[in-house]
From TrEMBL:
GO molecular function, a single term: monoatomic cation transmembrane transporter activity
PANTHER family: POTASSIUM CHANNEL PROTEIN 2-RELATED-RELATED, VOLTAGE-GATED POTASSIUM CHANNEL KCH
UniProt key word Lipoprotein: no
Predominant location category: membrane
Keyword terms: Membrane, Transmembrane, Transmembrane helix
UniProt GO BP: potassium ion transport
Organism: Dermacoccus nishinomiyaensis
Pfam family, any one: Ion_trans_2
Topology versus the membrane: Multi-pass membrane protein
An annotated GO cellular component: plasma membrane
Protein name per Swiss-Prot or TrEMBL: Potassium transporter
């Protein structure tokens, strides 16, 4: 295997970390309690109103009145308080008994004082409700409450930019719960327009703060991992630091574009650090030197229902021309050079580069339109030229398809695909690492098997758990009889036909058996990673839960089922098919 391609398998990571003190994960940012803010801002108005009430009540008890007999009398403290209460609140029941002129004069003064007090208090309250600090505190409290109500495994996604948005959409499609943190105003509004299936707790805050991650559920027992996908490498480093130090053993995946920051991240031993600019060169070399392996890996990693991409035809000899206005060009050039290719760097400011003697051309400036223009000019000069372009987003996907671009590098898309490959079905990434190390014939055989059985579009993945909890019927059968992969993937309604599924990996007692053939036997408590049509996965659920189906696929003997069992089995299949994959 080419040394450069080893980069796709595993980058060196520090697996030993210093002993750290166990500390409690903070879950509340300072000065963000909404009740505290209300009390602090309303303190002066409330004191003013209380003072006005006290003076009004005291004055009304001191001002003399007269009873029906003409004798001088005074209201008790309770009677004065009662009268001032309904008078100042504008309810106005009337006088307790006929007041004298001094009493009515004092009540008039009290009315004006309380009106001023209420106006002061209401104005301050309205101003408070509209203040950014109170709205932010209220949003934090709602966010914390929503997170605390989650009673199933979830992920913390930091950053809802292009990469984070793609990851969240696919997680939602797979039925995985997640919470979102983003510091940029307005980004979280897109969660509503994305029409996600489940309710997504989202907070506009700085995810690099430990307290914010704590509010997002870092200490929650249901938290499965943290994805640092913000646009700022320093913030991603802080997120990696907080998650790995405060919650040792937590699965952490980070995005990074700066090599120096990436090395700092690896000191904290996250599960993966994805540098898209650095990894593109390795994928490009894989496409040129191992085109079938590249087709297999990228097709299975892409969450979209896209057909199998065409095979690259490697160009031998010649040179590669790379044009860029930042570090991307140097990184790609180094990757190509390490793969044994001659590389020429071209300055985009000097016009269109000379590609007359080149085998390939990479347009890697920071401007998407410029890259497409450079690519089209190169294609006009050499129709057989291999052309790759760098695109900041997939907004011009239709133009790229029409121009027939051979290779497209979209950083956010690469980050999203690798993150999802590790998160949705973690075992799948170990298969990717294995496939890259194998000869080209391995990918050719597997692609042929996949397309023959599943077509060139189906690629849904699932882990078939053969334990008593995951597949009770199959587990009971395996306790006293054998079963092969081929039998496991047989159609439970027609044993002689195969479900549109292919086994990628068999996991047994921690050992990984890659691309097992149909004659490989399975045992109780094994796990099988399969890929194929969604309806094939649903049909497989019948075999997992029905003893009659399990016996039928193994022996061909059809065991009759009762009407009650068929109804119960159908209900189990529907329930299981709604569960998240992997």
């Amino acid at each position: 295997m080419n040394n450069l391609l080893a980069f796709l398998v595993r980058r060196p990571t520090r697996h030993t970390t210093r002993a750290r003190r166990a500390v409690e994960i903070p879950d509340e940012a300072p000065s963000t309690d909404a009740i505290f803010i209300v009390i602090r801002r309303m303190r002066a108005p409330l004191i003013f109103i209380i003072t006005v009430f006290a003076i009004s009540v005291l004055g009304l008890t001191l001002v003399p009145g007269r009873d029906e007999g003409g004798h001088t009398t005074h209201l008790s403290a309770f009677e004065a308080f009662y009268f001032i209460s309904y008078t100042a609140s504008t309810i106005g029941f009337g006088e307790i008994y006929p007041f004298t002129t001094p009493q009515r004069m004092w009540v008039t003064v009290c009315i004006f004082m309380t009106v001023v007090g209420w106006a002061y208090a209401i104005g301050t309250l309205l101003s408070l409700l509209q203040s950014a600090s109170f709205q932010h505190a209220l949003a934090m409290q709602r966010f914390r409450t929503k997170v605390q109500r989650i009673r199933e495994p979830f992920l913390i996604v930091c950053g809802y930019g292009q990469a984070g948005r793609q990851v969240c959409r696919e997680l939602d499609f797979q039925g995985r719960r997640f919470v979102v943190i983003d510091r940029h105003e307005g980004r979280l509004d897109r969660i509503l327009t994305d029409e996600l299936q489940s309710e997504v707790p989202a907070l506009e805050a700085n995810a690099s703060l430990p307290a914010v991650l704590g509010m997002a559920g870092l200490a929650n027992q249901h938290c499965d991992g943290v994805l640092a996908l913000t646009d700022d490498d320093t913030d991603n480093l802080a997120i990696v630091m907080n998650a790995t130090v405060l919650r040792p053993g937590m699965s952490v995946i980070a995005r990074c574009t700066d090599a120096r920051v990436e090395e700092s991240m690896r000191d904290f031993a996250p599960n993966a650090v994805i540098n898209p600019s650095d990894r593109y060169g390795a994928y490009l070399v894989l496409a040129l030197q191992r085109p079938e392996t590249y087709r297999l890996v990228t097709w299975l990693m892409d969450p979209r229902d896209l057909p199998l991409p065409p095979r690259y035809e490697p160009k031998s000899g010649g040179t590669w021309v790379v044009t860029s206005d930042d570090d991307f060009g140097a990184e790609v050039s180094n990757d190509l050079h390490r793969a044994g290719m001659r590389v020429v760097m071209a300055d985009p400011e000097e016009g269109h580069p000379d590609v007359s003697g080149a085998s390939g051309f990479i347009a890697g400036t920071r401007n998407d339109t410029t890259n497409l223009a450079l690519a089209e000019h190169a294609k006009l000069e050499r129709k057989d030229l291999f052309v790759g372009v760098r695109q900041q987003s997939d907004a011009r996907a239709s133009i790229i398809t029409a121009l027939g671009i051979d290779s497209v590098f979209t950083p956010t898309e690469l980050v999203a695909q690798e993150s999802l490959a590790r998160v949705i079905t973690p075992l799948f990434w170990s298969f990717v690492e294995y496939a890259v190390t194998q000869p080209e014939e391995f990918a050719e055989r597997l692609l042929t098997n996949l397309t023959n059985r599943c077509g060139d579009v189906a690629k849904d993945r699932a882990i078939i758990d053969l334990s008593a909890a995951g597949s009770p019927a199959l587990h009971r059968w395996l306790l006293h009889a054998e079963l092969t992969i081929g039998q496991l993937l047989a159609n439970p309604d027609e044993r002689d036909s195969k479900l549109p599924l292919v086994a990628l990996m068999l996991i047994r007692n921690g050992e990984h058996i890659y691309a097992p053939d149909d004659t490989t036997t399975v045992t109780p408590d094994d796990q099988v990673l399969v890929v194929g049509h969604h309806w094939g996965l649903e049909a497989l659920v019948q075999t997992q839960f029905s003893d009659a189906s399990a016996e039928y696929i193994a022996t061909g003997v059809q065991v009759p089922e009762t009407w009650v069992w068929r109804r119960l089995n159908r209900s189990k299949r529907r329930s299981r098919s709604r569960q998240p994959v992997g």
